[in-house]
Amino acid sequence: MARNRNKLQRSVRSDPVELAAKYLGEPSLRFCGGREHVSQVHGIASFGPHSLDAGRHPNHVRVGLIGSGKSIASARSWLRSCADGVKGEDDLPDFPGYRADRGFFSELVFDDDLVETLTTHEIADATSPRLRKDRFENVVKLIGDKTRLLSQRDSPPTYLVLAIPDDLLGDFRAIDFVDPELGAVHRDLRRALKAELMRYRIPTQILLQRVAEALPGAKDVDHKSRYAWNFFTGMYFKAGGVPWSPCNLEPGTCFVGVSFYRPLGSGSNRIRTSVAQAFDEHGDGIVLRGQDFAWDEDKFGKSPHLDRDSASALINMVLDRYTAEMKQAPKRVVIHKTSRFWNDEREGFQEALRSVRHIDLLAVTPTSDIRLLRAGQYPPLRSTRFRLGDISYLYTTGFLSPLKAYPHGHVPSPLQIADHVGDTDLDQLLWELLVLSKMNWNSAGFAGLMPITIRFSRLVGDIMREIPQEREPEPQFRYYI
Asked: Distances in Å between the alpha carbon of 467 and those of 195, 285, 318, 444?
């Protein structure tokens, strides 16, 4: 018996695995006057948005409104009340307002000529068909027609608030149906509206009626200051401003997020390639749609990969667009995706990047299989990089040491570095991930789990599936968020 037990112990014994951890620090962001802060809300509240004295500052925003008579009145009242400023809560500073002399230092302009009402008769007609998918299409078309009318005004709005009545939004927030040709189809109203309305080149934002009409202390909506911070940060960007910019990203670097999406319906084995979101060192981005290709899940698995020619064509498209926008070729290109680079895919990327001096291909994926446990009541620090054997991980969420706060309310999971091929030290690449996790201009939240390259490429893909293949999508990111 003892001999058998010793044999079992020898069979399960393994070599020790080395664990090493390092804190990379919290990247700062740049605001008005070149002043820096680690926090978006503290930076704007203290210094003002980055573009206030750096060009691209919108002095005023002409606000268009679409909704029912009641939802429009509620939205306008909410916007005006927030523009004066909103008292904060325990873990969030006051929202400083959206006025010419405070906050974002910009003014809201309302005009009855910039309002289109969804009348009772129009809503009844749009929602009268028997099939829910037809009613969904009618609602998208109705709001699209109203947007077209606003876009044809002599002085159209620069920003459009969709104050869709709660009952209408609730009925059509998302629908599922089976199409004889497409198979099972899932459609989302927000995505469908973004895809439809971008053709009129007016950035949009949905303002929920229940948010606009919420009483103080309401439990079914975010605190008003939190909602205001997110809403008006997005408005400032969509109106042409830059709320904040990253610090110390290497000049001439183009960051590219690559993801994949399927067209509407389950009946096709086609994948539309690779929405790529290319960023420069200032955080500016453009949206690109690559070629579509066939993908056999049964044969190759659920995670799509590009062949050599498609990978090369995609990156050549990115380089051409970057050069056209920046008036020079990039000195360095970093490609982010969430799955390992297959050989053909990697070779195609490298072939297209032969003219670029420094390149990096980096794959990161969230994982809950491995977590650090920290002594005390707080989770691991955001910006902690650790290595277990040969595998590296990074916490992009976690306890915020500079603010002594933990805003997430859940146990954080790290990103696993699934693959890396290239020229840059891994710590530098991970630090750049931390910077890019703070570059969501549609929110004043501190940081997201994923870098904005990957996060936005996925978000864009969700909307791209609603854009017909024959229609060229708008390249500016503000139409997608």
From this structure: 6, 20, 20, 28
Instruction: Look at residues 105, 107, 110 and name the one whose alpha carbon lies nearest to residue 161.
Output: 110
CB distance 385 to 393 below 8 Å: yes
What's the rounded Cα separation, in Å, for the pair 440 and 455?
9
Lookup: tokens for 210: 């229940």
Distances from the Cα of 255 to the Cαs of 186, 222, 246, 283, in angstroms? Answer: 31, 33, 13, 9
Residue 364 and residue 320: Cα distance in Å, rounded?
26
Q: How many CB atoms lie within 10 A of CB 302?
A: 8
In tens, the pLDDT along 90-106 reads 778 899 999 999 999 99
Tokens encoding 295:
């993908």
Question: pLDDT tens digits for 184-205?
Answer: 999 999 999 999 999 999 999 9
Query: What pLDDT digit, counting tens, does each position of 443-456 carry?
Result: 999 999 999 999 99
Pull the structure tokens for residue 262.
């399927």
- Angle (CA) 317-319-322 rounded to 5° is 110
How far, in Å, CA of 149 to CA of 123, rounded?
A: 17
Q: Is 297 exposed, middle or buried (0-12, 13-18, 19+ CB in 10 A)?
A: exposed
First to last CA, the chain: 67
Domain range summary for the chain, segments of one domain joined by +: 58-238, 247-479
Q: What is the DSSP string of 25-50?
A: -PPPEE-GGG-EES-HHHHHHHH--G
CA atoms within 13 A on the CB side of 333: 26
B/e letters for 440-449, b = 16+ CB within 10 Å, e = fewer, are: bbbbbbbbbb
- Number of Cβ within 10 Å of residue 33's Cβ equals 12
CB atoms within 10 A of CB 418: 17
Residue 379 CB neighbour total at 10 angstroms: 20
Determine the Cα–Cα distance for residues 232 and 104; give it in Å rounded to an integer: 8
Q: Is the pLDDT of residue 344 over 90?
A: yes
Give the separation between CA 331 and CA 22, rounded to whole angstroms. 29
Q: Percent of the chain, pLDDT > 70? A: 95
Pairing relationship of beta strands 358-366 and 332-337 according to DSSP bridges: parallel
**pTM of the full predicted structure?**
0.92
What are the backbone angles phi and psi of residue 225, rounded to the nearest 5°? -65, -40
Residue 48: partners with Cβ closer than 8 Å, 6 or more residues away: 31, 32, 33, 104, 105
- Domain 247-479 fold is Nucleotidyltransferase; domain 5 (3.30.420)
